[in-house]
Design a protein that fits this description.
The structure holds two protein chains of two kinds. By secondary structure, chain A is mostly helical. In chain A, 60% of the residues lie in helices and 11% in strands. By secondary structure, chain B is an alpha+beta fold. In chain B, strands 3-4-7-8 form a four-stranded mixed beta sheet. Classes of the chains: A mainly alpha, B alpha+beta.
Chain lengths: 185, 319
């Protein structure tokens, strides 16, 4: 039986593809945005990248995605540069971006429209907005998985308990925006 | 681990821990007469471990369970170093604990576990200790081989013991879905496993463990497998063919730039948070590892090395 090397090329390619998509918009991709956009791709758009998200300090978060980002940076797929003025890290395509994308080409071709849509919806959101919106979607999905369909009021209550540093008006607005975008179905 | 049918992914050990707490420890945690518990019940503990239904205070506490400064990491580095007789995992735990602080994210207001500036080098030391333990111990070529052998021996032991148990995956631990399953899971102690192995059980890999005829590493990549190395590795795997019985993986990030350790500093004023990677060039320079190691049987090692010599190139890592 032949053994496999099991490099997750499609996951690496997804990270590169998001970096490239943001570069085209002219808006830098941050680490929070990467986490939340991949979360939306998996949970809302059904993209099977194999990540599993849990709720952490800044909303849905996947440790494996972080590791993959580290690896993709190390092998030249992206650059991760620190902006001291803004005090955050920016992710941009690296010198080997094309090579890594080619390795995951089949996967990327199948998810290209989902990537375009999620970048269009959230490409200009702040880290705070992404944290809130992703937490709303996470709470909604958790409620659904335990058999309930929460009304907006219940969802706001739930998210406010998790994230009391967001006021209820902010959360309501987020819920409405997400419903309009079709992220809460 | 068995596959969780709801998620399509293997159960994690946290799933077992949470289930054990809920099933067997509710009384001792919730009702112990000497234990005030600060209002924390067994379900709170289980939820914290499973990362389920967490609210604001619990998200803060979660960082102590899982994060770059978590209690498990702080413990195992020192404990493993002591029991293994190595120095790699040692760091200044006392200083780290004394300088722990609570802070809030300046952008989102989220509560954070942070380190006072006086403990920054202790935090750096923990990161470095982890790097050393992984590269020198946990990712050691022989240890990686034995991981493979014990896992496969366990599959045989489990399949033999659970042949009539009606499980969907008899060669995996029973899922953490009932008290009976949890008791069966807990019965797989070191004593039991080592006794079965000593008694000749465990199949082919059990015999390998007893005789110490473990698979031998014949090729390893650098810690970071860059594109050219990935192509070369594929060529090597193709050339070695069925000789390769196992591909070992040494994958981790030494320091994650998301969820960074934050240092509380007054310089320059006012008091603010600085990510550890900005404070420590050593930590900032650490790169992730996605190393691969190719293993063959000891009897065919010489044959594999001959094949590798025909492929070898300058700078290739061979053993």
């Amino acid at each position: 039986m032949r053994v496999e090397l099991n490099f997750p090329w499609k996951r690496y390619a997804l990270i590169v593809a998001l970096a490239k998509a943001f570069q085209r918009t002219g808006v830098p991709l941050g680490k929070t945005a990467l986490q939340k956009l991949v979360y939306f791709l998996e949970s809302v758009f059904g993209v099977d990248a194999g990540y599993e998200f849990s709720l952490y300090t800044y909303g849905p978060f996947c440790v494996e995605l972080l590791h993959d980002l580290d690896v993709v940076e190390a092998i030249g797929g992206v650059r991760v540069d620190y902006d001291a003025t803004l005090n955050w890290y920016q992710i941009s395509p690296g010198p080997r971006a094309d090579w890594i994308e080619d390795r995951g080409r089949e996967f990327l071709d199948n998810v290209a429209s989902a990537i375009d849509e999620v970048v269009s919806d959230y490409g200009r959101s702040t880290a705070k907005e992404l944290e809130l919106h992703a937490t709303v979607v996470f709470s909604h999905r958790q409620a659904q998985s335990s058999g309930s369909m929460p009304q907006d009021e219940e969802l706001v209550d739930e998210v406010h308990e998790i994230k009391p540093h967001f006021d209820r008006h902010e959360i309501f607005r987020a819920v409405r925006q997400l419903r309009m975008l079709g992220y809460l179905t | 681990m068995p596959i969780n049918p709801e998620k399509g992914k293997p159960y994690k050990h946290e799933d077992y821990s949470a289930a054990i707490i809920r099933e067997f420890m509710t009384d001792v945690i919730d009702n112990h007469p000497d234990n005030g518990n600060y209002g924390i019940g067994s379900n709170d503990v289980a939820d914290l471990i499973e990362n389920r239904g967490l609210k604001a205070r619990q998200l803060f506490l979660r960082q102590i369970i899982s994060g770059q400064l978590d209690a498990d990491r702080a413990d195992y580095l020192l404990r493993d170093s002591y029991h293994l007789g190595v120095q790699y995992g040692r760091y200044d735990l006392t200083r780290l604990l004394v300088t722990l602080a609570a802070a809030s994210d300046p952008e989102t207001g989220a509560p954070l576990l942070a380190i006072e500036e006086g403990g920054a080098h202790a935090a750096e030391g923990l990161i470095w200790a982890r790097f050393q333990m992984f590269t020198q111990v946990y990712f050691h070529k022989t240890r990686v081989a034995y991981d493979h052998h014990i896992a496969n021996a366990m599959r045989v032991l489990l399949a033999e013991a659970q042949a009539d148990a009606g499980l969907a995956q008899p060669d995996a631990f029973p899922p953490p879905t009932s008290a009976e399953n949890l008791k069966a899971y807990l019965s797989w102690t070191d004593w039991r496993v080592l006794g079965l192995l000593e008694g000749g059980r465990g199949g082919e890999h059990g015999e390998i463990l007893r005789s110490r005829q473990h698979y031998r590493m014949v090729y390893q990549t650098p810690d970071v497998v860059e594109p050219e190395e990935a192509l070369h590795l594929e060529k090597i795997l193709e050339s070695l063919g069925d000789l390769v019985l196992h591909v070992g993986r040494a994958e981790t990030s030494w320091y994650k730039l998301d969820g960074e350790i934050r240092i509380v500093t007054d310089w320059p004023a006012p008091r603010h948070l600085v990510p550890l990677s900005r404070y420590s060039p050593a930590v900032a320079g650490m790169r992730a590892s996605n190393k691969r190691m190719l293993y063959v049987s000891p009897e065919r090692r010489a044959e594999a090395m001959r094949i590798l010599e025909t492929i070898g190139r300058e700078g290739t890592h061979e053993s």
